Amino acid sequence: MLTACGGSDAVFGTGDGSGDGSGGGTGGDTGSPIQGDRTLPPGTTSPTARTGIFRSEPTSTETAYNGNGYARDVSYNAADDTFSVDNLGFDGDNTYSRGTAVGSLGPYSVYEADAQFLDSFDGEPVNQFRHRAIYGVSTSGNTQFAIVRTGAYVGYGFGGFIYQRNNEVNLPTTGQALFTGSVAGLRDYNGIGALEYTTGDIRIAIDFDDFNDTTGTRGDAVRGEIRNRRIFDLQGNDVTETTLNRINTQNNATLREIPTATFTVGPGVMDDNGEILGQMTSYFVNNEGQALLFEEGNYYAIISGDQAQEIVGVVVLETSRDPAAPTVRETGGFIVYN
To answer: Segment Disordered: which positions (predicted)?
Structure first.
């Protein structure tokens, strides 16, 4: 169900990512490695558990993803309930208004760029590209995320995501904790110009005892899943069943819901600053009884609070099972609470 939500006037970050890591909206390089060849997204240069941390989508030189990480100077303006984004072509005057057909997805706000911009010389209307943004802020105001996608290009096009913690974190060293909340996202297509909204329920559990710690990382195991996943068109119509019908036809399956996406459990996904980075997948069983990969991707998150009571993050999942396009990507933001 699509419902209303509020907001905050915190600024997410600047375009060049410069700063000292002393609070939200600062940072610079790609961070330090978590495990193997996986590195933190761009953002805060020298993160600690005692400072705010800001992360943004990495850029890419791969053709399908060369528009990743282009969104800059992202901020929410509480005075007039607008959302500002820089560095995206043909999105009006960079100010996004609250969505008309869809203004909220659960507790998160939806914004859209102007459909037209007046010619600066003769006032003639200039049609703009379709852009949508999702903004989330926690009930404490200590964590935030933003996602911007377009669906106006043949490929994925230009956009980005940002997630951040505005305060410190005090991580437990023993015990386990369960976090629950909701996820909302944007679904874009590589191969056709299309864009949709997504929603779901997310649960994350952390074992602060095991795995054992190693130099530079904590061993803490992190488990997560996204269930009850739905897809909506830009008018707010639920198109989950329509999507599943074409997926079933293409893949000889009888799916009745979007498969549950789960975190890959293993050591080394969390560091002492409360940042978490790992892989995730979803699977389905076709009519021949074969278990097959449905999606794969990554999750990015930061723990916040003096009792580590909330987590903010972003998930990016991609599938080649939808015959509507060679690949389809879902970028979802979440805030979960203990």
So the answer is: 1-63
Helix (H) or strand (E) holding 251: helix 240-251
Task: State both tokens at 37.
Answer: 């060849």
Mean pLDDT score of the chain = 88
Domain that residue 276 falls in = 33-337
Query: 245-281 pLDDT, tens per residue?
Result: 999 999 999 999 999 999 999 888 999 999 999 999 9
Does 23 map to a domain?
no
How many domains does one find in the chain? 1
Classify 116 as helix, strand or coil.
strand
Task: State yes or no: cis peptide before 129, omega within 30 of 0.
Answer: no
Q: Note the pLDDT tens digit of each residue in 202-251.
A: 999 999 998 887 766 688 999 999 999 999 999 999 999 999 999 999 99
Question: H or E stretch including 335?
Answer: strand 327-337
Alpha carbons 59 and 15: distance in angstroms, whole number: 13
DSSP state of 99: P
- On whether residue 22 sits in a domain, the answer given is no
3-state SS, residue 259: coil
First vs last C-alpha separation in the chain:
23
Rounded to whole angstroms, the Cα distance separating 133 from 110 reads 6
Residue that the structure tokens 């890591």 belong to: 21
**Are 309 and 171 within 8 A, CB to CB?**
no
Query: pLDDT at position 3, please?
Result: 24
In a domain, 270, yes or no: yes
Would you say residue 21 lies in a domain? Answer: no
As given in the structure block, the two tokens for residue 324 are 């509507």
Quickly state the pLDDT bin for 17 (edges 50, 70, 90).
Answer: very low
Residue carrying structure tokens 């293993």: 266
**Residue 47 carries which DSSP code?**
-
pTM, 2 dp: 0.87
43-86 tens-digit pLDDT: 999 999 999 999 999 999 998 899 999 999 999 999 999 999 99
